[in-house]
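Input structure tokens:
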């Protein structure tokens, strides 16, 4: 979907559909919606008083305006979208509404649409933020993964072009900057979705590494991919243990963005879990729903995708993305429950359950980041089924050892609409990870499953300010929810971009 910005009177715009809006409870519309109402001889006001248009969130009313009575009014149709109550209105409402509109326009067969910026009037949202949310809602909400659907000929194509119309010349620059950011954020999140939706037979560690290298070369990032022999030299025994059960070679991916080259210590490391298929290994998962484990590289996808937007938007700090990519398979050479491995930092780990593999790969990715001088670490991982039990599939649990960094992550996640909630790293639950034979055990029992996993990672983060985001429940959805379409959500790609933008401003 191409996005354009024009300064114009809305009633004079050439489009198949012009999208305007209405807050709940407003009986006589003002602003651009008011101008349209006037041009249509009070038609919108009449539909409000008739009760057809109420302004409730996501309500859409299509009015056909190709009528000689509306001479001088150029849009062929007008879509009035409800914004809900002005009290609960924010950029996330704009994303939600824009996603619903984008899908409605597609179903209606619209090719050229025009829209006003929702919320920049009486909604009181700053025009560039409102525009960014509008663009994100439109691009994320119309996402589909159609690559392997070859026979359905009746499917409606996407809206070809969306023109944002604004009458006030003074707002155009802000709107244009919102478009630039909205496009970068959405393209990155949709890239993460593509990688997660890709089946495991098409997304080996080498495929993920190739995508990362392409993102790097197209956006001026540096990229390094370590092979098994390199990883062995570095002593990443925990990562190697996971990888040894399957034939597809591991790839350790490291992308670097230098936004403050003179101050290498001004850095943030984004570490994503990159299990390209998690069978569970010898502790084999049950068959039902195992196919979803193609998405066990969702953290890696998010950090690689975030780097694309970070490279484009250029915050003033150094950002590194790391993904220790591998399958977790039960082959004849697989590691066994009871094995002991040694991580890069020298700590020994008893493998209690080979299905708790993500924390093992993260342990060595963190060891690597620390060996390179990481000042701050944010890891993102589809780590525990227990995350869904704790918080459901709308909120990702967050853990961390540094209040400032945790709060920065929570604030950015709220701003972009990717809900997160902090859970405690309490000392009682931590004891569940103790091993009788090694420094640590890779499981901590059923109670507090997300917490024991986080404690395990915390032991490797040590003193480095660190935050862990468990996206096991939020990375894929069964059905569409607002701008998050069914399948991969791409969460928390936009939170990571926003975090980098905020830390490097
Ligand atoms: N990748 C899974 C976690 C997961 C489960 C992600 C469901 C998405 C949906 C992870 O590697 C795993 O298997 N975790 C185990 C840990 C257990 C063995 C301690 C789990 O959650 O059951
Ligand atoms: Mn697992
Ligand atoms: Zn896993």
């Amino acid at each position: 979907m191409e996005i354009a910005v024009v300064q114009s009177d809305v009633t004079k715009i050439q489009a198949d559909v012009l999208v305007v809006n209405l807050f709940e409870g407003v009986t006589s519309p003002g602003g651009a919606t008011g101008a349209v109402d006037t041009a249509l001889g009070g038609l919108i006001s009449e539909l409000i008083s008739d009760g057809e248009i109420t302004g409730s969130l996501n309500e859409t009313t299509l009015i056909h305006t190709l009528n000689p009575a509306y001479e001088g009014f150029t849009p062929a149709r007008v879509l009035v979208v409800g914004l809900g109550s002005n009290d609960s209105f924010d950029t996330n409402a704009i994303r939600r509404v824009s996603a619903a509109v984008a899908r409605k326009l597609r179903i209606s067969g619209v090719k050229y649409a025009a829209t006003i910026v929702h919320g920049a009037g009486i909604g009181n949202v700053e025009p560039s933020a409102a525009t960014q949310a509008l663009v994100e809602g439109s691009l994320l909400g119309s996402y589909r993964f159609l690559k392997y659907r070859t026979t359905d000929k009746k499917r409606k194509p996407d809206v070809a072009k969306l023109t944002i119309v604004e009458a006030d010349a003074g707002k155009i620059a802000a709107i244009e900057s919102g478009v630039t950011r909205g496009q970068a954020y959405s393209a990155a999140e949709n890239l993460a979705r593509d990688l997660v939706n890709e089946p495991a037979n098409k997304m080996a560690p080498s495929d993920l590494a190739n995508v990362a290298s392409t993102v790097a070369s197209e956006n001026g990032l540096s990229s390094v991919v370590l092979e098994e022999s390199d990883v062995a030299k570095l002593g990443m025994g925990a990562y190697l243990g996971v990888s040894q059960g399957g034939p597809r070679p591991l790839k350790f991916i490291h992308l670097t963005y230098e936004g403050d080259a003179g101050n290498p210590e001004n850095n943030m490391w984004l570490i994503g879990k990159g299990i390209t298929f998690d069978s569970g290994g010898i502790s084999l998962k049950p068959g039902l729903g195992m196919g979803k484990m193609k998405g066990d590289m969702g953290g890696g996808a998010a950090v690689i995708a975030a780097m694309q937007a970070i490279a484009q938007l250029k915050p003033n700090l150094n950002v590194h993305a790391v993904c220790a990519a591998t399958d977790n398979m039960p082959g004849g050479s697989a590691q066994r429950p009871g094995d002991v491995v040694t991580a890069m930092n020298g700590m020994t780990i008893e493998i209690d359950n080979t299905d708790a593999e993500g924390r093992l790969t993260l342990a060595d990715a963190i060891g690597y980041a620390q060996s390179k001088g990481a000042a701050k670490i944010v890891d993102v991982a589809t780590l525990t089924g227990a995350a869904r039990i704790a918080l459901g599939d709308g909120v990702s649990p967050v853990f961390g050892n540094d209040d400032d960094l945790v709060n920065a992550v929570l604030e950015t996640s709220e701003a972009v609409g990717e809900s997160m909630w902090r859970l405690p790293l309490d000392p009682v639950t931590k004891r569940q990870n103790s091993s009788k034979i090694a420094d640590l055990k890779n499981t901590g029992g059923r109670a507090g499953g997300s917490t024991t996993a986080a404690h395990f990672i915390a032991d490797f983060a040590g003193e480095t300010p660190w935050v862990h985001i468990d996206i096991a429940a939020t990375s894929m959805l069964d059905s569409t929810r607002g701008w998050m379409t069914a399948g991969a959500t791409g969460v928390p790609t936009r939170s990571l971009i926003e975090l980098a933008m905020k830390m490097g401003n």
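Residues 278, 296, 353, 355-358, 382-386, 443, 449, 472 surround BES (ligand 1) (CB under 6 Å). The chain has a mean pLDDT of 98.
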